[in-house]
Amino acid sequence: MTQVNKGPVLQITRQGETDPVAHSGDAKHHKPAMCSRCGLCYTHHRDKLADACVFVENRYEMLDKKLHGRGRQAYTDEDMFGIYRHMYVAKMAKPVEGAQWSGIVTSLGTMLLEKKLVDGVICVQSAPGTRFKPKPTLATSVAELRKAAGNKPCLSHNLSALQEAEKLGIKRLAYIGNGCQIHALRAIQDQLSFEKIYFIGLPCTDIVSYQNYMKFLGLVSTSAETVVHLEFMPDYRVWMRHEDGHTEKVSYFGLPMDKLTNDIFPDSCMSCFDYTNSLSDITIGYLGAPMPYQWILARTGTGEELFEMLRPHLEFSPIVEKGKRDKVVLQSIKMLDRPPRTVPLPAWRIKLITFIVSNFGLKGIEFARGTLTMKWARNLHFIRKNYPEREDELVPGFARRVLGRYGL
Shortest CA distance to 39 belongs to which of 207, 228, 243, 185? Predict the structure, then answer.
């Protein structure tokens, strides 16, 4: 491990690495290997990065107590999902055109602007000429917000938009982002000029650079250039919706993993234990719900207020909990040190395995529990292999409790 101080930003690289990763020609924007490109260092709050960045040191325990007045109840679902008041499975009764699914997040941002509860919403549009390259945006109108509909599962420096919000004198703000960004924003919230921030969290299980995302599309789709939306679904297939409206579905078991594991995922995602965005006011996304429904966790009093705004416009579905994750998790742990398969399975076998697990495997909340546990086991393995001396700073207590069940 090498630690290099360049001004106020702590540079952390893997053992043996001497050249920090960069995503800008400007030397001041050089980043370490373990960096989620959250964008805080693009602002004049750069000097707060060491106290805010979850990959310098996770502060979940402190932030949980500050946000909820207590810590997580050990050995309950709060260890996996974070503290929440209510859980729902729902979709918009009238879907939003252009949204990835039914458009709950877009609708919520729209309501906040229309009701003048906020002056702006930090969201992500697509860079001109692209479909998935993220462009962090401060939307101050519904029209601007609507342009952000649809998922861009790529590293995005969303927090950089704080600079514009502060410059414009905005006092009430909504922030839509993933877990590492919201951890940073929560950590410095009291030092910012905003009177109110609504934290709208997106669950996230691994994102990649724009270049690697396009590489992924090229490997898994028969027509990468026409893919409009993509999601890893709880039926164990990747769903890709195309321009003509049809949906291409590729089994997890047919993915070319030998071509996808060569550093395609950033070290930050491989060291993350907050896929459910536990420090948000409300989490809206996938994992615990059958599509096209979405999983909603109202976490705070503010989160409940946001949900009640949505409630009249939603259709609900029962919460499902089916299967037992332990056997699946233990099997995945055994495979952590195995190299990825280089010879693809026969098509008939892929189809058979997919049919069995999608019909008789984990579903609903148990699917979410199993997925999170397997991801966390992989990430702990990654940290112990690449950043062993930083395990205490990177692995929160709730993840240790969950993984301890499996001898980790």
Answer: 185
